[in-house]
Amino acid sequence: MSDLSIRALSKAFGGVRAVNEVSFEVKRGEFLAMIGPNGAGKSTCFNMINGQLAPDSGSIWFEQKNLTGLAPREIWRLGVGRTFQVASTFGSMTVGENVQMALLSHANEIYRYWRPAAAMHRERALALLDQVGMREAADRPSRELAYGDVKRVELAIALANDPRLLLMDEPTAGMAPRERNDLIALVKRLVVEQGISVLFTEHSMDVVFAFADRIIVLARGRLIADGNAAEIRDHPQVREVYFGTGKTFARAAGAAS
Ligand code: ADP
Ligand code: MG
Q1: Pocket lining: 40 vs ligand 1, CB cutoff 6 Å
Q2: What is the fold of 2-89+163-256?
Q3: Is the pLDDT higher at 104 or at 132?
Q4: Which residue among 105, 153, 199, 224 is least crowded, i.e. fewest CB within 10 A of its CB?
């Protein structure tokens, strides 16, 4: 069953066709990587799906509902979450308080006339922190966290809204290779254990090939390939876009790192 269906989505900025007639599906419980060179249109795609940007044409369907043109808040309420960079108040609270705040704002949204007390969220916050391996840090000031741990807490905050589909545009930006691998492995585990669908972008091919169930490739606004790791690795047009003809992913990956 398809969870998210993107149909002939297009967006231009002036003369630049940032996203050009792109169609793809994310199945329920699927961990789908979107890759492509800088400027390929990945973030533009994400921002149309989460409602930040209105498409010029095409449509976006989630669980048979048409999301096209809905506001970010409505899309989020329908079960499509995304990771945010932490807010400026993040450092002034403990790790646990930050997750409780996210739970509180979710509850306020859902139960307008019955607002559970903040204390009620403590246990749920601890459970979410446990899922991302940060329970021990619940009472530490967030400002003391290492960068990789902030990313884990961002993930716990995104999960506070109980998304059925999670959008993650460059969740590992700025992380060291080892940390990237660990964060994506963690997300993959959540996908498997909780049946959440995830659409993510990631620059490290090693990480993408190791963890993605399926990979779609954008280049200059167009979707040029859709397949599993082996199919993408051997795809002539993908190799051309990334490395020029003749090179293989293995050689290029070795040369790049
Ligand atoms: P990616 O995330 O794959 O690196 P983007 O979606 O950010 O690519 O960008 C796709 C193209 O659209 C690029 O040529 C970029 O310069 C252009 N673009 C993206 N956002 C805007 C914007 N707000 N205004 C003008 N051009 C934009
Ligand atoms: Mg981008």
Answers
A1: yes
A2: Rossmann fold (3.40.50)
A3: 132
A4: 105
